[in-house]
Amino acid sequence: MLLSGKLNKIRTFALLLIFLGVGVMYIGFLAPSWMPLFFALGILFVMGSVGIYFWVGILSTQSLPVTCPECGKPTKVLGRKDQCMHCKAILSVDPKDAPENKKEEPLS
């Protein structure tokens, strides 16, 4: 559930960059002679994460909001194909990628 949908995958990557940046800054405390380098590197990771979050926010406003046919919850589709953020169902904007309707056989 954590990595469903393209937007959530990018957000998860940005969150990992924040943790990585804080971890790199923490390593700076363990090596006092290298502290300025580790702090600068950690700040670069955190600032990169802020840039990614900003970019994802812009992508999120431009993505197509839809209601998932599987779970009925609102989600956003980025690109032609994406996953539902809630149930991981494959969603498509392109009609040729739409799942085929199953024909029900009549009961005898």
Automatic annotation (TrEMBL):
The chain crosses the membrane at residues 12-31, 37-56. This is Zinc-ribbon containing domain-containing protein. Keywords: Cell membrane, Membrane, Transmembrane, Transmembrane helix. It comes from Shimazuella alba. InterPro entries: UPF0295 (IPR020912). It holds the Pfam family DUF2614.
